[in-house]
Design a protein that fits this description.
The chain is α/β, with parallel strands linked by helices. About 35% of the residues lie in helices and about 20% in strands. The protein binds 6-O-phosphono-beta-D-glucopyranose (BG6).
Length: about 500
Amino acid sequence: MNNNDNHIYVIFGASGDLTKRKLVPAIYSLFVQNMLPNKFIMLGVSRTKFSDEEFRNKMKSAINEFKEIDNDSKIDEFIKKIFYTTLDYNDKESYKKLEGKITELRTSNSISGNSVFYLSTPPSLYGIIPQNLAAVGLNKQDDGWKRLIIEKPFGYDLQSALKLKDELLKDWEEEQLFRIDHYLGKETVQNLLVTRFSNGIFEPLWNRNYINHVEITSAESIGVEKRGGYYESSGALRDMVQNHLLQVVGLTAMESPSSLEPSAIRNEILKVFQSLRPIKKEDVKKIAIRGQYISSKIRGEVVKGYREEEGVNPESVTETYAALKFYVDNWRWGGVPFYIRTGKRLPTRVTEVVIHFKPTPHFLFAQNDVCRSCNQLIIRIQPDEGILIKFGMKTPGEGFEVQTVNMDFHYSDLSNQRIPPAYERLIHDTMKGDATLFARTEEVLEAWKFLTPVMECWKDDKNVSLFGYPAGTWGPENADVLIEEADMTWRYPCKNLADDGIYCEL
Ligand code: BG6
């Protein structure tokens, strides 16, 4: 990094889980790889009282526990760059003290006015902190750049997202805002762009003429763990679909950008969102399925149902599974259905994009029905990151029987290539001011607008079923019906890219 980019990295919510698990270990990884400017300090801010020393010790243990790069020799040098101060988020006076502390640290460490403010706080503070920072001039860029980083959720629905937009844009420029969607920080999500636009072989086929349907899955084997309180007000649609999954849809469906400029890429993603066919409220039952995991035995162990989880209402109707069918109404995708699904407590953790190509116009060989979808391109986001092509091949022997075989590439085959974790990449981008992998206001609003009919219907219409599914299974059976209409089935991916099937290696 250019040393002119010396800066102070201020993290609000510094006593929280994200700081400990992701942010500080990621900044440490950057330090170990010499990717921080020489003049760099981090200031942790939260309500809890700690001395610098106490906070440094906490961060030292966090790095030891969650570090992504094994290099203990530099931890002591790194934590000297960390400072701490308390703040009462709602008290304007408290921000004057914060401004004083920042000025003092900058002066003693010869750092210019460049500052990143990272909000790793409850979303209810996303309006007030930026406003109070601006009230003490910490948004002004005359003595160096100022950037504001916000974690999702960006609002709870379209209305609250619009309100948040107005609150933020009152004092801050859009260019100063970086909305983190950690899926965009994943190497394999970025590789969607490269696979599509650096190869001549895929792009000519990437349209309605050759693609039957697109399937995107993001499955998790864990439940809501200790986040029941948050999840109750979120659910799978807000937690995963509105942001992560729609961004993956954006990268899968977008046109080639004119350059790698952030605005060029983000404009193309926005156009996809603007082309999503609006969902009619009366159609929600047909195109959206919701489910909630119920208690079950997984590998001999009893697993709690969602309603028994800590912080969850025993009569909760929050969905832990969501599947959706929709269309992107433009020339490239006209008539091609997109099926997306996400859920907690599914059999395995896997995220992937499956491009199902159209079958041949005439079945010359003894292909069975399975081969209706025999050509698939699978882009595996995680785990066993890679790309798999499925195609038909002659079964050796007499006659012309066809069987489906695999051609696969695994990132793990690239020796000595480290895949940087999403937060490491995104934090580094916030330091460089590269906004390519961050969600822009319009994208966020379009995503909320698209999902509003589903959210409203699920909230208000008591006739829309919430299906139970036993923890450890692939979600409600009704989600199968959704895709069966197209005479297809979901792919049931396994941990290993090349395997699939409802029953997989554990
Ligand atoms: C977060 C959601 O944004 O993404 C979590 O809030 C979810 O509920 C997580 O578990 C999934 O991220 P990943 O990187 O593990 O797929």
